UniProtKB/TrEMBL annotation:
<dbReference type="GO" id="GO:0016887">
    <property type="term" value="F:ATP hydrolysis activity"/>
</dbReference>
<dbReference type="InterPro" id="IPR027417">
    <property type="entry name" value="P-loop_NTPase"/>
</dbReference>
<keyword id="KW-0067">ATP-binding</keyword>
<dbReference type="InterPro" id="IPR017871">
    <property type="entry name" value="ABC_transporter-like_CS"/>
</dbReference>
<dbReference type="InterPro" id="IPR003439">
    <property type="entry name" value="ABC_transporter-like_ATP-bd"/>
</dbReference>
<feature type="domain" description="ABC transporter">
    <location>
        <begin position="2"/>
        <end position="227"/>
    </location>
</feature>
<keyword id="KW-0813">Transport</keyword>
<dbReference type="GO" id="GO:0005524">
    <property type="term" value="F:ATP binding"/>
</dbReference>
<dbReference type="InterPro" id="IPR003593">
    <property type="entry name" value="AAA+_ATPase"/>
</dbReference>
<comment type="similarity">
    <text>Belongs to the ABC transporter superfamily.</text>
</comment>
<protein>
    <submittedName>
        <fullName>ATP-binding cassette domain-containing protein</fullName>
    </submittedName>
</protein>
<keyword id="KW-0547">Nucleotide-binding</keyword>
<dbReference type="Pfam" id="PF00005">
    <property type="entry name" value="ABC_tran"/>
</dbReference>
Amino acid sequence: MLSIHELTKRRGSREILSGLSFEARPGRVTAFLGPNGAGKTSTLRILLGLDSATSGTALIDGVPFARLKDPLTKVGALLDGSGAHRSRTARAHLRWIAAAGGIPPARVAEVLAVVGLTDDARRRVRSYSLGMSRRLGLAAALLGDPEILVLDEPVNGLDPEGIRWIRTFLRERAETGRTVLLSSHFLGEVAETVDDAVVIHQGQIVAQGTLSEVVGEHGTIEDAYFALTGAPRGGLR
Ligand SMILES: Nc1ncnc2c1ncn2[C@@H]1O[C@H](COP(=O)(O)OP(=O)(O)OP(=O)(O)O)[C@@H](O)[C@H]1O
C-alpha cells in the first residue's frame, strides 16, 4: 500500500505540490494523471526517497522508503531512462544491481526474458532505442519481484506492441495482488489498464477515485481529464 498524506513541496518561493493525499492499493493499478509540470515526477521522487517533502508524508506500507528493510523486494521503480551506464551491457547492468541488492544472479536472465530483451542482453546500452531502454529500466525494477511497482510514464517510448505488452503485464501484476502506481499523460492507454485514477493539476489533486468515479458524467477519461485540468487538447494523444 502506498499512502501519500498532505504532501507539500516548496522549491524556493514556489509551492509545486500542495497538500496531496491519495493511496495506491494492493491488487489495483492506479494511474497518476496530469499535464507536463503538474507534479507527478516530484511526487514519485519523494515517495522513492530521492527528494524530501517540505511537509506531509509519502509512505510505503507505513514507512518512508529509507526505512524499508528490503527495498528491492518491496518496491520496484522506473523513473526516466534505464538508469544504466551507456557503455555497459544490459546484462552487466542488471547483474550489478542484483549483486548490490543480494538477489541471485539467475534472476537477471528471468527479468530479461520478462521484458523481451534476452536477445539484446549482451549489447551495450548506448545502442538501445528509447523503448529498449524503458524495458531495461523495467527489468531492473522487477529484479526483486517487488510487491509494489512505481512507474513514471512507463509507456513513453514504447511502440504499439510494447504498449500492449506493458498493459497486459501491469494487469497481471495487479491481479496477483500487487500494487501498481503509474504516472501517465497517455490517456488512451490508461483507460484500458487502470482501476483507480488520481488527477493532479498545478500541484493539487483535482479528482480521485475508481476510474468510473473519475470519469463521472464526462463520458470518457479524456473528457474528464481536459475538463479537470484545462490542458490544451492538441498537447496530448
Ligand atoms: N529540480 C527542480 N528545481 C526546480 N523546479 C523543479 C525541479 N523539478 C521540477 N520542478 C518544477 O516542479 C513542477 C512539477 O514538475 P514535475 O516534473 O514533478 O511534473 P510532472 O507532472 O512530472 O511533469 P512531466 O510530465 O513534464 O514530467 C514543475 O513546475 C517543474 O518546473
